[in-house]
Design brief:
The structure holds two protein chains of two kinds. Chain A has twelve helices and no strands. Chain A has helices spanning 3-24, 27-55, 64-79, 81-93, 96-101, 107-135, 144-171, 175-181, 183-191, 204-212, 215-227, 234-259. By secondary structure, chain B is of the alpha/beta class. Chain B has two domains: 23-242, Rossmann fold (3-Layer(aba) Sandwich); 250-321, no CATH class. Chain B has helices spanning 63-70, 92-98, 114-124, 129-142, 158-170, 188-203, 215-221, 239-244, 258-267, 288-298, 314-322, and strands at 23-34, 37-48, 52-56, 78-83, 86-87, 99-102, 176-180, 207-212, 224-229, 232-237, 250-255, 272-274, 279-283, 304-310. At the A-B interface, helix 1 and helix 5 of A face helix 2, strand 6 and helix 3 of B.
Protein backbone atom coordinates (compact mmCIF):
# COMPACT_ATOMS: atom_id res chain seq x y z
CA UNK A 1 0.00 0.00 0.00
CA UNK A 2 1.25 3.47 -0.76
CA UNK A 3 1.42 6.13 1.91
CA UNK A 4 -1.53 7.89 0.33
CA UNK A 5 -3.85 4.88 0.34
CA UNK A 6 -2.86 4.14 3.95
CA UNK A 7 -3.66 7.75 4.85
CA UNK A 8 -7.02 7.52 3.04
CA UNK A 9 -7.87 4.21 4.69
CA UNK A 10 -6.92 5.45 8.18
CA UNK A 11 -8.86 8.67 7.62
CA UNK A 12 -11.98 6.74 6.66
CA UNK A 13 -11.55 4.50 9.74
CA UNK A 14 -11.31 7.56 11.99
CA UNK A 15 -14.25 9.16 10.15
CA UNK A 16 -16.31 6.02 10.78
CA UNK A 17 -15.38 6.17 14.46
CA UNK A 18 -16.53 9.80 14.67
CA UNK A 19 -19.83 9.06 12.97
CA UNK A 20 -20.43 6.15 15.34
CA UNK A 21 -19.84 8.52 18.27
CA UNK A 22 -22.31 11.01 16.75
CA UNK A 23 -25.00 8.39 16.27
CA UNK A 24 -24.46 6.97 19.75
CA UNK A 25 -24.42 10.38 21.46
CA UNK A 26 -26.55 12.66 19.24
CA UNK A 27 -26.96 15.47 21.78
CA UNK A 28 -24.15 17.59 20.30
CA UNK A 29 -25.64 17.16 16.83
CA UNK A 30 -29.12 18.10 18.02
CA UNK A 31 -27.70 21.08 19.90
CA UNK A 32 -25.95 22.36 16.79
CA UNK A 33 -29.33 22.39 14.98
CA UNK A 34 -31.34 23.73 17.90
CA UNK A 35 -29.27 26.90 18.34
CA UNK A 36 -29.67 28.16 14.74
CA UNK A 37 -33.35 27.22 14.69
CA UNK A 38 -33.94 29.23 17.88
CA UNK A 39 -32.16 32.20 16.30
CA UNK A 40 -34.22 31.75 13.15
CA UNK A 41 -37.49 31.86 15.12
CA UNK A 42 -36.27 34.74 17.29
CA UNK A 43 -35.33 36.89 14.33
CA UNK A 44 -38.31 36.01 12.14
CA UNK A 45 -41.06 36.39 14.74
CA UNK A 46 -39.70 38.76 17.39
CA UNK A 47 -36.91 40.96 16.08
CA UNK A 48 -37.59 40.67 12.37
CA UNK A 49 -40.33 43.34 12.09
CA UNK A 50 -38.37 46.42 13.14
CA UNK A 51 -35.23 45.11 11.41
CA UNK A 52 -37.11 44.67 8.11
CA UNK A 53 -38.20 48.35 8.28
CA UNK A 54 -34.62 49.53 8.53
CA UNK A 55 -33.28 47.13 5.94
CA UNK A 56 -34.15 49.31 2.96
CA UNK A 57 -32.70 48.31 -0.38
CA UNK A 58 -30.61 45.47 1.16
CA UNK A 59 -33.75 43.31 1.31
CA UNK A 60 -34.34 43.75 -2.43
CA UNK A 61 -38.06 43.91 -1.80
CA UNK A 62 -38.26 40.44 -0.25
CA UNK A 63 -39.40 39.65 3.33
CA UNK A 64 -36.70 39.70 6.08
CA UNK A 65 -36.69 35.91 6.32
CA UNK A 66 -35.08 35.71 2.88
CA UNK A 67 -32.34 38.08 4.00
CA UNK A 68 -31.90 36.20 7.29
CA UNK A 69 -31.74 32.50 6.30
CA UNK A 70 -28.30 32.54 4.58
CA UNK A 71 -26.86 33.93 7.83
CA UNK A 72 -28.66 31.25 9.84
CA UNK A 73 -27.19 28.58 7.54
CA UNK A 74 -23.71 30.01 8.08
CA UNK A 75 -24.37 29.99 11.82
CA UNK A 76 -25.43 26.36 11.55
CA UNK A 77 -22.04 25.43 10.09
CA UNK A 78 -20.30 27.45 12.81
CA UNK A 79 -22.41 25.73 15.49
CA UNK A 80 -20.76 22.44 14.49
CA UNK A 81 -17.31 23.69 15.51
CA UNK A 82 -17.83 23.00 19.20
CA UNK A 83 -18.39 19.31 18.45
CA UNK A 84 -15.04 19.07 16.62
CA UNK A 85 -13.17 20.97 19.33
CA UNK A 86 -14.79 18.88 22.09
CA UNK A 87 -14.17 15.52 20.38
CA UNK A 88 -10.56 16.32 19.46
CA UNK A 89 -9.89 17.60 22.99
CA UNK A 90 -11.52 14.50 24.54
CA UNK A 91 -9.18 12.30 22.50
CA UNK A 92 -6.10 14.43 23.09
CA UNK A 93 -6.58 14.60 26.86
CA UNK A 94 -7.64 10.96 27.21
CA UNK A 95 -5.51 7.84 27.11
CA UNK A 96 -6.53 6.72 23.63
CA UNK A 97 -4.34 9.24 21.82
CA UNK A 98 -1.28 7.40 23.18
CA UNK A 99 -2.55 4.17 21.67
CA UNK A 100 -3.00 5.84 18.29
CA UNK A 101 0.41 7.51 18.54
CA UNK A 102 2.18 4.22 19.22
CA UNK A 103 0.57 2.61 16.17
CA UNK A 104 1.77 3.04 12.60
CA UNK A 105 -1.21 5.23 11.72
CA UNK A 106 -1.10 8.18 9.35
CA UNK A 107 -0.83 11.19 11.69
CA UNK A 108 -3.04 13.35 9.47
CA UNK A 109 -5.84 10.75 9.65
CA UNK A 110 -6.22 11.30 13.39
CA UNK A 111 -7.48 14.84 12.66
CA UNK A 112 -8.88 14.32 9.16
CA UNK A 113 -11.45 11.91 10.66
CA UNK A 114 -13.05 14.45 13.02
CA UNK A 115 -12.90 17.22 10.38
CA UNK A 116 -14.46 14.99 7.70
CA UNK A 117 -17.20 13.91 10.09
CA UNK A 118 -17.88 17.57 10.85
CA UNK A 119 -18.37 18.30 7.15
CA UNK A 120 -20.89 15.46 6.84
CA UNK A 121 -22.70 16.63 9.99
CA UNK A 122 -22.80 20.18 8.60
CA UNK A 123 -24.52 18.93 5.44
CA UNK A 124 -27.11 17.19 7.60
CA UNK A 125 -27.67 20.11 9.97
CA UNK A 126 -27.87 22.77 7.21
CA UNK A 127 -30.41 20.58 5.37
CA UNK A 128 -32.56 20.29 8.49
CA UNK A 129 -32.30 24.02 9.21
CA UNK A 130 -33.17 24.80 5.57
CA UNK A 131 -36.29 22.68 6.08
CA UNK A 132 -37.17 24.70 9.18
CA UNK A 133 -36.57 27.93 7.25
CA UNK A 134 -38.93 26.82 4.48
CA UNK A 135 -41.53 26.09 7.13
CA UNK A 136 -41.39 29.66 8.47
CA UNK A 137 -41.75 31.23 5.05
CA UNK A 138 -38.30 31.25 3.46
CA UNK A 139 -38.76 31.30 -0.34
CA UNK A 140 -35.44 30.73 -2.14
CA UNK A 141 -35.13 31.56 -5.82
CA UNK A 142 -32.08 29.41 -6.45
CA UNK A 143 -31.58 27.21 -9.51
CA UNK A 144 -30.34 23.62 -9.16
CA UNK A 145 -26.79 24.82 -9.91
CA UNK A 146 -27.15 27.52 -7.30
CA UNK A 147 -28.01 24.86 -4.73
CA UNK A 148 -24.91 22.89 -5.74
CA UNK A 149 -22.85 26.05 -5.25
CA UNK A 150 -24.51 26.61 -1.85
CA UNK A 151 -23.57 23.07 -0.83
CA UNK A 152 -20.01 23.71 -2.07
CA UNK A 153 -19.67 26.83 0.06
CA UNK A 154 -21.12 25.01 3.08
CA UNK A 155 -18.56 22.22 2.59
CA UNK A 156 -15.63 24.63 2.11
CA UNK A 157 -16.67 26.66 5.15
CA UNK A 158 -17.12 23.50 7.24
CA UNK A 159 -13.65 22.24 6.25
CA UNK A 160 -12.08 25.58 7.15
CA UNK A 161 -13.81 25.92 10.53
CA UNK A 162 -13.28 22.18 11.16
CA UNK A 163 -9.48 22.40 10.94
CA UNK A 164 -9.48 25.57 13.01
CA UNK A 165 -11.55 23.96 15.76
CA UNK A 166 -9.41 20.80 15.60
CA UNK A 167 -6.49 23.07 16.50
CA UNK A 168 -8.59 24.58 19.32
CA UNK A 169 -9.22 21.07 20.62
CA UNK A 170 -5.49 20.32 20.63
CA UNK A 171 -4.31 23.51 22.34
CA UNK A 172 -7.10 23.61 24.93
CA UNK A 173 -6.28 22.05 28.29
CA UNK A 174 -9.83 20.92 28.98
CA UNK A 175 -13.00 20.10 27.09
CA UNK A 176 -14.72 23.14 28.58
CA UNK A 177 -11.86 25.32 27.34
CA UNK A 178 -12.05 23.81 23.86
CA UNK A 179 -15.77 24.51 23.74
CA UNK A 180 -15.44 28.13 24.81
CA UNK A 181 -12.74 28.77 22.21
CA UNK A 182 -15.36 28.10 19.52
CA UNK A 183 -17.87 30.58 20.97
CA UNK A 184 -16.54 33.57 18.96
CA UNK A 185 -16.94 31.49 15.79
CA UNK A 186 -20.46 30.50 16.76
CA UNK A 187 -21.81 33.86 17.91
CA UNK A 188 -19.46 36.83 17.74
CA UNK A 189 -18.34 36.63 14.12
CA UNK A 190 -21.84 35.93 12.71
CA UNK A 191 -23.19 39.02 14.49
CA UNK A 192 -20.26 41.15 13.36
CA UNK A 193 -20.94 40.22 9.74
CA UNK A 194 -23.79 41.01 7.37
CA UNK A 195 -25.66 37.89 8.52
CA UNK A 196 -28.45 39.71 10.39
CA UNK A 197 -28.19 43.31 9.22
CA UNK A 198 -26.15 44.88 6.40
CA UNK A 199 -22.64 46.00 7.36
CA UNK A 200 -23.51 49.51 6.07
CA UNK A 201 -25.85 50.04 9.02
CA UNK A 202 -23.11 49.47 11.63
CA UNK A 203 -20.89 52.07 13.39
CA UNK A 204 -17.73 52.95 11.47
CA UNK A 205 -15.14 50.72 13.18
CA UNK A 206 -17.38 47.67 13.31
CA UNK A 207 -18.53 48.35 9.75
CA UNK A 208 -14.94 48.14 8.56
CA UNK A 209 -14.41 44.90 10.50
CA UNK A 210 -17.67 43.41 9.21
CA UNK A 211 -16.82 44.27 5.64
CA UNK A 212 -13.41 42.64 5.84
CA UNK A 213 -13.89 39.53 7.97
CA UNK A 214 -14.38 36.07 6.39
CA UNK A 215 -17.98 35.45 7.53
CA UNK A 216 -19.29 38.35 5.44
CA UNK A 217 -18.29 37.08 1.96
CA UNK A 218 -19.52 33.60 2.97
CA UNK A 219 -22.95 34.89 3.95
CA UNK A 220 -23.09 37.35 1.02
CA UNK A 221 -22.41 34.61 -1.52
CA UNK A 222 -24.92 32.26 0.11
CA UNK A 223 -27.51 35.03 0.07
CA UNK A 224 -26.86 35.91 -3.57
CA UNK A 225 -27.12 32.25 -4.61
CA UNK A 226 -30.30 31.61 -2.59
CA UNK A 227 -32.12 34.79 -3.62
CA UNK A 228 -31.04 34.63 -7.25
CA UNK A 229 -29.08 37.90 -7.05
CA UNK A 230 -25.75 38.41 -8.88
CA UNK A 231 -22.98 36.76 -6.87
CA UNK A 232 -20.17 39.10 -7.87
CA UNK A 233 -16.82 38.83 -6.14
CA UNK A 234 -18.17 37.53 -2.85
CA UNK A 235 -17.96 33.87 -3.91
CA UNK A 236 -14.28 34.19 -4.86
CA UNK A 237 -13.60 36.02 -1.62
CA UNK A 238 -15.47 33.36 0.35
CA UNK A 239 -13.54 30.52 -1.28
CA UNK A 240 -10.23 32.35 -0.78
CA UNK A 241 -11.01 32.95 2.90
CA UNK A 242 -11.99 29.28 3.35
CA UNK A 243 -8.74 28.15 1.71
CA UNK A 244 -6.70 30.48 3.90
CA UNK A 245 -8.45 29.41 7.12
CA UNK A 246 -8.10 25.74 6.13
CA UNK A 247 -4.35 26.15 5.55
CA UNK A 248 -3.84 28.10 8.78
CA UNK A 249 -6.01 25.73 10.82
CA UNK A 250 -4.30 22.66 9.36
CA UNK A 251 -0.80 23.98 10.06
CA UNK A 252 -1.76 25.09 13.54
CA UNK A 253 -3.38 21.72 14.31
CA UNK A 254 -0.34 19.85 12.96
CA UNK A 255 2.05 21.92 15.08
CA UNK A 256 -0.14 21.52 18.16
CA UNK A 257 -0.37 17.77 17.60
CA UNK A 258 3.42 17.45 17.39
CA UNK A 259 3.97 19.67 20.39
CA UNK A 260 1.87 17.33 22.51
CA UNK A 261 4.46 14.61 21.87
CA UNK A 262 7.33 16.23 23.69
CA UNK B 1 20.60 -13.18 28.69
CA UNK B 2 23.18 -14.68 26.40
CA UNK B 3 26.42 -12.79 26.15
CA UNK B 4 27.83 -12.47 22.64
CA UNK B 5 30.51 -15.04 22.05
CA UNK B 6 32.39 -13.02 19.49
CA UNK B 7 33.83 -9.60 19.90
CA UNK B 8 32.36 -7.08 17.53
CA UNK B 9 35.68 -5.36 17.01
CA UNK B 10 37.08 -7.65 14.32
CA UNK B 11 36.24 -7.38 10.62
CA UNK B 12 32.99 -9.06 9.67
CA UNK B 13 33.76 -12.17 7.70
CA UNK B 14 30.45 -13.95 8.00
CA UNK B 15 28.60 -14.40 4.72
CA UNK B 16 25.26 -15.19 6.32
CA UNK B 17 22.74 -12.38 6.67
CA UNK B 18 22.92 -10.38 9.86
CA UNK B 19 20.47 -11.81 12.34
CA UNK B 20 18.97 -9.24 14.64
CA UNK B 21 17.68 -11.65 17.25
CA UNK B 22 19.23 -11.49 20.67
CA UNK B 23 18.17 -8.02 21.72
CA UNK B 24 14.66 -6.58 21.39
CA UNK B 25 15.67 -3.30 23.00
CA UNK B 26 19.04 -1.62 23.26
CA UNK B 27 19.18 1.84 24.78
CA UNK B 28 22.17 3.89 25.84
CA UNK B 29 22.67 7.27 27.45
CA UNK B 30 18.96 8.18 27.55
CA UNK B 31 18.44 11.61 29.04
CA UNK B 32 15.29 13.68 29.40
CA UNK B 33 14.81 17.06 31.01
CA UNK B 34 11.40 18.60 31.68
CA UNK B 35 11.33 22.28 32.60
CA UNK B 36 14.86 22.22 33.96
CA UNK B 37 14.27 19.05 35.96
CA UNK B 38 16.29 15.99 34.96
CA UNK B 39 13.83 13.09 34.84
CA UNK B 40 16.16 10.61 33.12
CA UNK B 41 19.91 10.68 33.36
CA UNK B 42 22.19 8.42 31.34
CA UNK B 43 19.89 5.41 31.35
CA UNK B 44 21.12 2.31 29.54
CA UNK B 45 19.19 -0.90 29.27
CA UNK B 46 18.79 -3.90 27.05
CA UNK B 47 16.08 -6.52 26.79
CA UNK B 48 16.73 -9.86 25.15
CA UNK B 49 14.28 -11.45 22.75
CA UNK B 50 11.55 -13.16 24.73
CA UNK B 51 12.77 -11.70 27.99
CA UNK B 52 10.72 -9.91 30.65
CA UNK B 53 12.38 -6.83 32.11
CA UNK B 54 10.76 -5.04 35.03
CA UNK B 55 11.50 -1.40 35.71
CA UNK B 56 11.02 -1.02 39.44
CA UNK B 57 10.73 2.33 41.13
CA UNK B 58 8.45 4.77 42.94
CA UNK B 59 6.30 7.41 41.27
CA UNK B 60 8.42 10.02 39.56
CA UNK B 61 11.45 7.74 39.17
CA UNK B 62 11.24 7.94 35.37
CA UNK B 63 9.65 4.58 34.52
CA UNK B 64 6.92 6.02 32.32
CA UNK B 65 9.37 8.37 30.61
CA UNK B 66 11.46 5.36 29.55
CA UNK B 67 8.35 3.60 28.22
CA UNK B 68 7.34 6.75 26.33
CA UNK B 69 10.76 7.12 24.71
CA UNK B 70 11.02 3.46 23.69
CA UNK B 71 7.45 3.38 22.37
CA UNK B 72 8.04 6.51 20.18
CA UNK B 73 5.65 8.72 22.16
CA UNK B 74 8.34 11.22 23.09
CA UNK B 75 11.93 11.80 22.05
CA UNK B 76 14.89 11.68 24.40
CA UNK B 77 17.03 14.80 24.70
CA UNK B 78 20.15 12.66 24.38
CA UNK B 79 21.05 9.03 23.89
CA UNK B 80 20.02 6.40 21.39
CA UNK B 81 17.55 3.56 21.44
CA UNK B 82 16.89 0.74 19.05
CA UNK B 83 13.68 -1.26 19.37
CA UNK B 84 13.21 -4.48 17.38
CA UNK B 85 16.22 -3.47 15.30
CA UNK B 86 14.91 0.00 14.41
CA UNK B 87 15.96 3.38 15.66
CA UNK B 88 13.10 4.91 17.68
CA UNK B 89 13.79 8.38 16.32
CA UNK B 90 14.42 7.78 12.62
CA UNK B 91 12.33 4.66 12.04
CA UNK B 92 9.42 5.33 14.38
CA UNK B 93 6.81 3.72 12.12
CA UNK B 94 8.84 0.50 11.81
CA UNK B 95 9.08 0.38 15.61
CA UNK B 96 5.35 1.09 15.96
CA UNK B 97 4.51 -1.79 13.61
CA UNK B 98 6.08 -4.31 16.01
CA UNK B 99 5.18 -3.02 19.45
CA UNK B 100 2.10 -2.90 21.64
CA UNK B 101 1.67 -0.40 24.44
CA UNK B 102 -0.64 -0.46 27.43
CA UNK B 103 -0.17 2.74 29.37
CA UNK B 104 -1.08 3.69 32.90
CA UNK B 105 -4.25 5.40 31.77
CA UNK B 106 -6.97 3.48 30.04
CA UNK B 107 -6.54 3.76 26.27
CA UNK B 108 -9.97 2.54 25.27
CA UNK B 109 -12.64 4.48 23.42
CA UNK B 110 -15.40 4.92 25.99
CA UNK B 111 -18.01 5.65 23.34
CA UNK B 112 -17.46 2.30 21.61
CA UNK B 113 -18.31 -1.18 22.90
CA UNK B 114 -15.54 -3.61 23.81
CA UNK B 115 -15.92 -5.41 20.49
CA UNK B 116 -16.00 -2.15 18.51
CA UNK B 117 -12.81 -1.06 20.26
CA UNK B 118 -11.03 -4.21 19.11
CA UNK B 119 -12.40 -3.89 15.56
CA UNK B 120 -11.29 -0.25 15.43
CA UNK B 121 -7.74 -1.26 16.31
CA UNK B 122 -7.95 -4.05 13.73
CA UNK B 123 -8.95 -1.55 11.05
CA UNK B 124 -6.10 0.75 11.98
CA UNK B 125 -3.75 -2.23 11.67
CA UNK B 126 -5.20 -2.84 8.18
CA UNK B 127 -6.20 -6.40 9.00
CA UNK B 128 -8.59 -7.97 6.45
CA UNK B 129 -12.22 -7.99 7.64
CA UNK B 130 -12.41 -11.74 8.30
CA UNK B 131 -9.16 -11.81 10.25
CA UNK B 132 -10.22 -8.71 12.16
CA UNK B 133 -13.44 -10.33 13.35
CA UNK B 134 -11.79 -13.66 14.15
CA UNK B 135 -8.98 -12.03 16.12
CA UNK B 136 -11.41 -9.82 18.05
CA UNK B 137 -13.60 -12.81 18.94
CA UNK B 138 -10.60 -14.85 20.04
CA UNK B 139 -9.25 -12.06 22.25
CA UNK B 140 -12.66 -11.40 23.82
CA UNK B 141 -12.83 -15.10 24.64
CA UNK B 142 -9.25 -15.26 25.94
CA UNK B 143 -9.74 -12.21 28.15
CA UNK B 144 -13.11 -13.35 29.46
CA UNK B 145 -14.94 -10.41 27.90
CA UNK B 146 -17.28 -12.22 25.51
CA UNK B 147 -20.36 -11.51 27.65
CA UNK B 148 -19.46 -7.82 27.86
CA UNK B 149 -18.45 -7.51 24.19
CA UNK B 150 -21.53 -5.51 23.20
CA UNK B 151 -21.42 -3.20 26.23
CA UNK B 152 -19.74 0.16 26.66
CA UNK B 153 -16.63 0.28 28.86
CA UNK B 154 -18.55 2.51 31.29
CA UNK B 155 -20.22 -0.66 32.56
CA UNK B 156 -16.88 -2.49 33.02
CA UNK B 157 -14.98 -3.01 36.26
CA UNK B 158 -11.42 -1.71 36.53
CA UNK B 159 -10.02 -5.17 35.85
CA UNK B 160 -12.23 -5.63 32.77
CA UNK B 161 -11.21 -2.26 31.32
CA UNK B 162 -7.56 -3.14 31.84
CA UNK B 163 -8.10 -6.50 30.13
CA UNK B 164 -9.81 -4.82 27.18
CA UNK B 165 -6.92 -2.37 27.03
CA UNK B 166 -4.40 -5.20 26.82
CA UNK B 167 -6.55 -7.13 24.33
CA UNK B 168 -6.47 -4.04 22.08
CA UNK B 169 -2.71 -3.94 22.45
CA UNK B 170 -2.54 -7.58 21.33
CA UNK B 171 -4.73 -7.19 18.22
CA UNK B 172 -1.66 -6.76 16.04
CA UNK B 173 0.31 -9.66 17.57
CA UNK B 174 3.14 -7.39 18.75
CA UNK B 175 6.57 -8.93 19.37
CA UNK B 176 7.34 -6.47 22.15
CA UNK B 177 4.83 -5.24 24.69
CA UNK B 178 5.16 -2.31 27.05
CA UNK B 179 3.05 -2.63 30.19
CA UNK B 180 3.17 0.53 32.26
CA UNK B 181 2.02 -0.34 35.79
CA UNK B 182 -0.45 -2.95 34.58
CA UNK B 183 -1.81 -3.76 38.03
CA UNK B 184 -1.87 -0.35 39.71
CA UNK B 185 -5.36 0.29 41.02
CA UNK B 186 -6.56 -3.29 40.59
CA UNK B 187 -7.98 -5.40 43.40
CA UNK B 188 -5.92 -8.44 44.47
CA UNK B 189 -7.97 -10.90 42.43
CA UNK B 190 -7.71 -8.83 39.24
CA UNK B 191 -3.99 -8.42 39.93
CA UNK B 192 -3.50 -12.18 39.97
CA UNK B 193 -5.57 -12.55 36.80
CA UNK B 194 -3.32 -9.96 35.18
CA UNK B 195 -0.20 -11.79 36.32
CA UNK B 196 -1.51 -14.98 34.73
CA UNK B 197 -2.23 -13.11 31.49
CA UNK B 198 1.31 -11.78 31.44
CA UNK B 199 2.72 -15.27 32.07
CA UNK B 200 0.66 -16.57 29.14
CA UNK B 201 2.16 -13.90 26.90
CA UNK B 202 5.64 -14.82 28.04
CA UNK B 203 4.91 -18.44 27.21
CA UNK B 204 4.08 -17.36 23.65
CA UNK B 205 7.54 -15.83 23.37
CA UNK B 206 6.55 -12.17 23.56
CA UNK B 207 9.17 -9.76 24.91
CA UNK B 208 7.86 -7.57 27.72
CA UNK B 209 8.95 -4.36 29.37
CA UNK B 210 6.96 -3.96 32.55
CA UNK B 211 7.00 -1.11 35.03
CA UNK B 212 5.87 -1.54 38.58
CA UNK B 213 6.08 -0.10 42.06
CA UNK B 214 5.85 -3.54 43.64
CA UNK B 215 8.90 -5.68 44.27
CA UNK B 216 6.69 -8.74 44.54
CA UNK B 217 5.27 -8.15 41.07
CA UNK B 218 8.69 -7.74 39.52
CA UNK B 219 9.85 -10.82 41.39
CA UNK B 220 6.88 -12.87 40.16
CA UNK B 221 7.06 -11.90 36.50
CA UNK B 222 10.46 -10.63 35.47
CA UNK B 223 13.59 -12.37 34.27
CA UNK B 224 15.54 -9.27 35.14
CA UNK B 225 14.79 -6.18 37.21
CA UNK B 226 16.21 -2.69 36.77
CA UNK B 227 15.74 -0.48 39.81
CA UNK B 228 15.12 3.15 38.95
CA UNK B 229 15.62 6.02 41.35
CA UNK B 230 15.29 9.68 40.42
CA UNK B 231 16.00 9.08 36.75
CA UNK B 232 18.93 6.71 37.20
CA UNK B 233 19.19 2.95 37.13
CA UNK B 234 20.72 2.19 40.51
CA UNK B 235 20.80 -1.59 40.21
CA UNK B 236 19.88 -4.33 37.83
CA UNK B 237 20.00 -8.08 37.80
CA UNK B 238 17.86 -11.16 38.25
CA UNK B 239 15.36 -11.07 41.11
CA UNK B 240 17.61 -13.49 43.03
CA UNK B 241 20.66 -11.30 42.59
CA UNK B 242 18.81 -8.24 43.78
CA UNK B 243 17.21 -9.91 46.76
CA UNK B 244 20.58 -11.14 47.90
CA UNK B 245 21.66 -7.52 48.11
CA UNK B 246 18.67 -6.56 50.21
CA UNK B 247 19.02 -7.16 53.93
CA UNK B 248 15.38 -6.38 54.52
CA UNK B 249 14.06 -9.91 55.17
CA UNK B 250 13.90 -10.53 58.88
CA UNK B 251 11.84 -11.95 61.68
CA UNK B 252 10.84 -9.46 64.30
CA UNK B 253 10.43 -10.54 67.92
CA UNK B 254 8.86 -8.28 70.50
CA UNK B 255 9.31 -8.87 74.22
CA UNK B 256 7.48 -7.87 77.34
CA UNK B 257 10.56 -6.79 79.31
CA UNK B 258 14.28 -6.04 78.99
CA UNK B 259 15.28 -9.30 80.67
CA UNK B 260 13.62 -11.38 77.95
CA UNK B 261 15.20 -9.20 75.27
CA UNK B 262 18.63 -9.68 76.86
CA UNK B 263 18.18 -13.44 77.02
CA UNK B 264 17.04 -13.63 73.39
CA UNK B 265 19.84 -11.36 72.17
CA UNK B 266 22.40 -13.66 73.81
CA UNK B 267 20.88 -16.74 72.18
CA UNK B 268 20.55 -15.06 68.78
CA UNK B 269 23.66 -12.90 68.41
CA UNK B 270 22.96 -12.22 64.68
CA UNK B 271 19.92 -10.12 65.64
CA UNK B 272 19.77 -6.34 65.99
CA UNK B 273 18.12 -5.06 69.14
CA UNK B 274 15.97 -2.04 69.66
CA UNK B 275 15.91 -1.40 73.42
CA UNK B 276 13.32 1.31 73.29
CA UNK B 277 10.70 -0.85 71.58
CA UNK B 278 11.96 -4.11 73.14
CA UNK B 279 12.40 -5.58 69.68
CA UNK B 280 14.95 -7.99 68.24
CA UNK B 281 15.27 -8.19 64.44
CA UNK B 282 16.79 -11.44 63.22
CA UNK B 283 17.77 -11.60 59.52
CA UNK B 284 15.93 -14.56 58.03
CA UNK B 285 13.85 -15.29 54.99
CA UNK B 286 10.44 -16.20 56.32
CA UNK B 287 10.31 -19.91 55.47
CA UNK B 288 8.67 -22.36 57.86
CA UNK B 289 11.94 -24.24 58.32
CA UNK B 290 13.85 -21.11 59.24
CA UNK B 291 11.13 -20.07 61.65
CA UNK B 292 11.05 -23.49 63.36
CA UNK B 293 14.83 -23.38 63.64
CA UNK B 294 14.74 -19.92 65.19
CA UNK B 295 12.09 -20.81 67.72
CA UNK B 296 13.97 -24.00 68.56
CA UNK B 297 17.11 -22.03 69.34
CA UNK B 298 15.15 -19.60 71.45
CA UNK B 299 13.73 -22.45 73.55
CA UNK B 300 10.83 -22.31 76.00
CA UNK B 301 12.59 -20.13 78.56
CA UNK B 302 12.21 -16.79 76.78
CA UNK B 303 8.73 -15.28 76.65
CA UNK B 304 8.05 -13.73 73.20
CA UNK B 305 5.19 -11.22 73.29
CA UNK B 306 4.79 -10.93 69.55
CA UNK B 307 6.36 -12.31 66.36
CA UNK B 308 6.13 -10.97 62.83
CA UNK B 309 7.78 -11.87 59.56
CA UNK B 310 9.06 -9.01 57.46
CA UNK B 311 9.66 -9.58 53.76
CA UNK B 312 11.61 -6.99 51.75
CA UNK B 313 9.53 -4.38 49.98
CA UNK B 314 10.35 -1.48 47.74
CA UNK B 315 11.44 0.63 50.71
CA UNK B 316 14.01 -2.01 51.66
CA UNK B 317 15.25 -2.19 48.09
CA UNK B 318 15.72 1.53 47.98
CA UNK B 319 17.23 1.71 51.43
CA UNK B 320 19.74 -0.94 50.47
CA UNK B 321 20.54 0.37 47.00
CA UNK B 322 20.42 4.11 47.43
CA UNK B 323 20.92 4.60 51.12
CA UNK B 324 17.69 6.57 51.34
CA UNK B 325 14.01 5.83 51.58
CA UNK B 326 11.98 5.62 48.39
CA UNK B 327 10.36 9.00 48.28
CA UNK B 328 7.37 9.71 46.18
CA UNK B 329 8.04 12.59 43.89
CA UNK B 330 5.01 14.08 42.34
CA UNK B 331 5.72 14.88 38.70
Amino acid sequence: MTTLTVAAQDSSTMLGRELRHTIRYPMLLIGSMLVPVVFLLLFVYILGGPIAHGLGSAARGAPYVDYLVPGILMMTVAAGTSTVAINVCLDATGGIIDRFRTMAISRGALLAGPVGASVLRSLVTTSVVTGAALAVGFRPRASAWDWVAVAGIVVAFAIALGWLSAAFGLVAKSVAGANSMTLPLQFLLPFLSSAFVPADSMPAGIRWFAAHQPFTPVVESLRALLTGAPVGNSAYLAVAWCAAITAAGYLWARTAFRRRGR
Amino acid sequence: MNTPTKSASGPRVSTSPVVTTGAAVIATGLRKVYAGKVVLDDVALSIGDGEVLALLGPNGAGKTTIVHILSTLIQADAGAASVLGHDVRREADAVRAGIGVTGQFSAVDNMLTGEENLLLVGRLLHLPAAERRARAAALLEQFDLTDAARQLPATYSGGMTRRLDIAMTLMGRPRLIFLDEPTTGLDPRSRHTMWQLIRDLVAEGVTILLTTQYLEEADQLADRIAVLDRGRIVASGTPEELKRRIPGAHIQLRFGDTASLDAAATTLPEGTRDDEQLILRVPQEGSVGALRDLLGRLGDGVAVADLSIHTPDLDDVFFALTGGLAKEETP
